[in-house]
Amino acid sequence: MEYFKLLVYFQSLQTSLQKACKVSLSISIGLENIIMCRVTKMKFVTFLMITIWARVVLTKDANLVDFLKTYVDNERKPTMVVLTGLCWKKDRVRNLVADLSKLGIRTSKPPSIDIQSKYHVVMHNTLFLNDLHCPETAEVIETAILHNLFRYPLRWLLLKNMSENSSVILEDIPAFADSDLVLAEITEELILLTELHKPNENGALISKDKGYYNGTMVDVRPHRELFKRRRDVMGRPLTMANVIQDSNNTRYHLPREDALELQYDVIPKICWMTAKLAFQMLNATPRYTFSYRWGYKVNGQWSGMINDLHTSKADLGTNCVVSDVERLSVVTYTDMLAPFRVRFVFRQPPLPSVANIFYLPFTGRVWAAVAVCAMVYTAAIYWASKWEFNLEKRSASQFDGTVGDAMLLTMSALSQQGCFIEPKRAPGRIMLFVLFTALMALYAAYSANIVVLLQAPSNSITSLAQLAASKVTLAANDVDYNHFVFSLYKDPVRVMIHKRIDPETGNGQFYSLEDGVDMIRQGFFAFHSIVEPVYRRIEETFLETEKCDLTEVDFLSSFDPFVPVKKDSPYLELLRVVFKQIRESGIQSALNRRYQVPKPRCSNKVAAFSSVGIVDLRPVLIMMIYGIISSCLILIMEMLVFKM
């Protein structure tokens, strides 16, 4: 516009100059006047051409700076403009950088656009600016393709004159669903902005109007969110790698979603149903593949599901536990589709096996009070028996006034067994009556507590260290992941557990799900597995009273399981959004409630009863053995004394 205004102004001045020359020639015709008129005319033309060129260049630069500022403001994101492959003159670039800096927009003109070495920290801020008119454009785009710089969250703004044909260069750009590539076509009146992307690798470049700039930025996009503009992938096939480890029948039931044999591979089934719904929301073609392991690095090569993602055989996989940090180099975790926990599941050992239940009914202070009272009564009975012995004649059932008789009577009262000797006088009998009555109430409370404690489970194992130090047998489900996860940790407690489950010599403690749950039921057995199928089996086989002492202990100490997606996948952001929409709608929660089994609830804890075993009476048996040994020693000592 400025150029045309100056051109019209120049033509009007030229017409005025011609008229002035004609007037001067008509007044005095001479060679000198003719030459002077022509020289003046040439100087004037040169001056006007220089002025027009300067005005056009300065106006063009000013418009470009205003456009960039308005464009960045319209993005509503922190932005650092990276000038790539510009063939502009240094003065023009310097002025552009200075003007953008005054507006608070950072700029950079690196010798290379290797984002991995310099800009990885601020990738979300980076806006690459390139002029397709420059000869270095092809090399810049080739380098960007090599380093995968057209992916999210990097942004590109390509400048182009309307007369230039750049379709060949643009067709080769891998601008997929998450790319932010904008073509700015500069015309005489305005700058047209067009978004470019491909729905898939083999698809044609799709262009959609973003807006235009004519002094002000006009954004014509129906939605500012990238997801809403790119959610239609136009039937592009998306493949999910499903990990099956329980039964080969899952290959038949999973794609049909028939809800059969839920005791096998329920996690992959839920993940597939949720992922298929997400594919339909993106207008993608659902496809699936199967793998028999989650994926671990063996001899430097990935295996299983992770290898399928790494080699682009699949786009996403069954959600897995984030236990191996090396996976982060090849996959990115998105959202949780089917929650599950990997734990040691076991029944708490009976209380008599881990504690002396004959000491537990009373607190330490009560036991101390009983001991003090016993000593006081022993002393009182001793003085009463001594006084009675001096008054009465000696008989077989009468006290002899010794400390031994007093202690024997007190011990008889404590054990509620009675004694063949008894006081004859009223004071002694009253003391004996009070002693037996008080200890009878104490004995009743003690016996009641013992009965409860014999049936009570312990709460002795609540941590991994306590489990490792216990006498509980440790074992694991005989599936792929249990042969790898135990070796990932190097702390002493986990190393001890690893050696107990999978020793270097001998057979490892690996069992099928059915055998493992049966051994959990028998007690003193901890089974490491995904807990949901274990609980399903427990609901089918355990009695109600056997569910009350179930306990979990976490070995992995990891985060919740998340869905792995191929690293730098162009569909990563789209999948993240649709997964969150599915979760927020309640569909994911409904699927989990329908197909998963929670931890069994204890409904008949009080009604539980089991016979008392030898283990329960261990303290009593030990006390009896000590008593027998003590009595034998006393007998030997008495025999030696009387013989001497």
From TrEMBL:
Gene Ontology, cellular component aspect: plasma membrane
Domain Ionotropic glutamate receptor C-terminal positions: 365-627
Name of one Pfam family that matches: Lig_chan
Sequence intervals crossing the membrane: 366-384, 430-454, 620-642
Membrane topology per record: Multi-pass membrane protein
Main location: membrane
SUPFAM superfamilies for the chain: Periplasmic binding protein-like II (SSF53850)
Gene Ontology biological process terms, A to Z: detection of stimulus involved in sensory perception
GO function terms (MF aspect): ligand-gated monoatomic ion channel activity
Compartment(s): Cell membrane
Keyword Secreted: no
Alphabetically ordered keywords of this record: Cell membrane, Glycoprotein, Membrane, Receptor, Transmembrane, Transmembrane helix
Keyword Methyltransferase: no
Family: Belongs to the glutamate-gated ion channel (TC 1.A.10.1) family.
Protein name listed in UniProt: Ionotropic glutamate receptor C-terminal domain-containing protein
Organism lineage string: Eukaryota, Metazoa, Ecdysozoa, Arthropoda, Hexapoda
